[in-house]
């Protein structure tokens, strides 16, 4: 799960978080709006006028760490953290409106050849230039046997000389993925100082994540936050098939399946405008078979639809679960 999380971030340069729903048909992406971006200083209604052929829904905006429920007249400001939903094919187009487009990552350096580092290299080595730095000689031998195209380097990721010898200034993204927070943070800071364009750091102590992200370190990842969603899926009530924890657990994105009919269900047979959503909850999209329908007020929910919701107030989770529980009359 952590490997997939990192891989999606590498595939979407500039994203802070990339989450998938309905088998990857829909993605929820968090980006920081940059000063000078086409949408900065414009209201959200402008996005639809400006991109008439791309359907997207801004699910939430965080401004100075406070959530804002987006409306058509909400104006996006520089440094806003914007969460938007769109069909996978449209993600790049929407990102380009919020921030300057970054070129694809090609050269990847991974610090740490453990399970996560090895799997990431395996995913990327046929489409990217990948190097792994691993301090254990025995592990280096194993990695060189298992991986096809990845260059395996024996040494310390905190060695300035090694990083300079390997031309770290030409690296598009440096991923520190060892099991030692101190090594990850120090190697990331050193790589950034020596010219790596982006650094992504795995931090096991969740309390450190907010301290380091956004400064020298571009993206900090907590393994607990990357994996907790799969656990939450099992404890949520109703037919909840996907849960993603957002903003260090402050919010949740939920994929629920609507069942029943208009009599037995609180959502089936109703338009999104008619659904009595708990405060701080928005419906972002509906997936019907292979069709992605971005949630506008007049969209009707049908039985079997996958409904993707964004909940910024976790105290309302129980209310959201109740929405998708079918009444006894259905049986």
Automatic annotation (TrEMBL):
<dbReference type="Pfam" id="PF02254">
    <property type="entry name" value="TrkA_N"/>
</dbReference>
<dbReference type="InterPro" id="IPR050721">
    <property type="entry name" value="Trk_Ktr_HKT_K-transport"/>
</dbReference>
<dbReference type="InterPro" id="IPR006037">
    <property type="entry name" value="RCK_C"/>
</dbReference>
<feature type="domain" description="RCK C-terminal">
    <location>
        <begin position="16"/>
        <end position="100"/>
    </location>
</feature>
<keyword id="KW-0520">NAD</keyword>
<keyword id="KW-0406">Ion transport</keyword>
<dbReference type="Pfam" id="PF02080">
    <property type="entry name" value="TrkA_C"/>
</dbReference>
<protein>
    <recommendedName>
        <fullName>Trk system potassium uptake protein TrkA</fullName>
    </recommendedName>
</protein>
<dbReference type="InterPro" id="IPR003148">
    <property type="entry name" value="RCK_N"/>
</dbReference>
<feature type="domain" description="RCK N-terminal">
    <location>
        <begin position="105"/>
        <end position="221"/>
    </location>
</feature>
<dbReference type="InterPro" id="IPR006036">
    <property type="entry name" value="K_uptake_TrkA"/>
</dbReference>
<dbReference type="InterPro" id="IPR036291">
    <property type="entry name" value="NAD(P)-bd_dom_sf"/>
</dbReference>
<keyword id="KW-0813">Transport</keyword>
<dbReference type="InterPro" id="IPR036721">
    <property type="entry name" value="RCK_C_sf"/>
</dbReference>
<feature type="domain" description="RCK C-terminal">
    <location>
        <begin position="241"/>
        <end position="326"/>
    </location>
</feature>
<keyword id="KW-0630">Potassium</keyword>
<keyword id="KW-0633">Potassium transport</keyword>
């Amino acid at each position: 799960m952590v490997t997939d999380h990192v891989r999606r971030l590498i595939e979407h340069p500039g994203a802070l978080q990339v989450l998938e729903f309905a088998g990857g048909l829909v993605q929820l992406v968090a980006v920081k709006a940059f000063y000078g971006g086409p949408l900065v200083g414009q209201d959200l209604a402008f996005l639809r006028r400006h991109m008439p052929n791309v359907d997207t829904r801004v699910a939430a905006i965080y401004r100075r760490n406070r959530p804002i429920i987006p409306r058509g007249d909400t104006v996006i400001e520089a440094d806003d953290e914007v969460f938007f939903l769109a069909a996978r094919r449209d993600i790049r187009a929407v990102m380009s409106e919020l921030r300057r487009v970054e070129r694809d990552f090609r050269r990847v350096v991974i610090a740490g050849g453990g399970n996560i580092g090895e799997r990431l290299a395996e995913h990327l080595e046929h489409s990217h230039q990948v190097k792994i730095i691993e301090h254990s000689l025995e592990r280096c031998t194993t990695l060189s046997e298992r991986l096809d195209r990845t260059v395996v380097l024996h040494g310390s990721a905190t060695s300035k000389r090694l990083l300079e010898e390997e031309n770290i200034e030409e690296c598009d993204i440096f991923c520190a993925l060892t099991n030692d927070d101190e090594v990850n943070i120090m190697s990331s800071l050193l790589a950034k100082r020596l010219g790596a364009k982006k650094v992504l750091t795995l931090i096991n102590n969740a309390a450190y994540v907010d301290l380091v992200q956004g400064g020298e370190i571009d993206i900090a990842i907590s393994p607990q936050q990357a994996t907790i969603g799969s656990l939450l899926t099992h404890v949520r009530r109703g037919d909840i098939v996907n849960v993603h924890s957002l903003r260090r657990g402050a919010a949740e994105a939920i994929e629920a399946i609507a069942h029943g009919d208009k009599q037995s269900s609180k959502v089936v047979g109703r338009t999104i405008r008619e659904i009595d959503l708990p405060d701080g909850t928005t419906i972002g999209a509906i997936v019907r078979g292979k069709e992605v329908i971005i949630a506008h007020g007049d969209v009707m929910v049908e039985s079997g639809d996958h409904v993707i919701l964004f909940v910024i107030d976790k105290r309302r989770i129980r209310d959201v679960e109740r929405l998708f529980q079918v009444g006894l009359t259905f049986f």
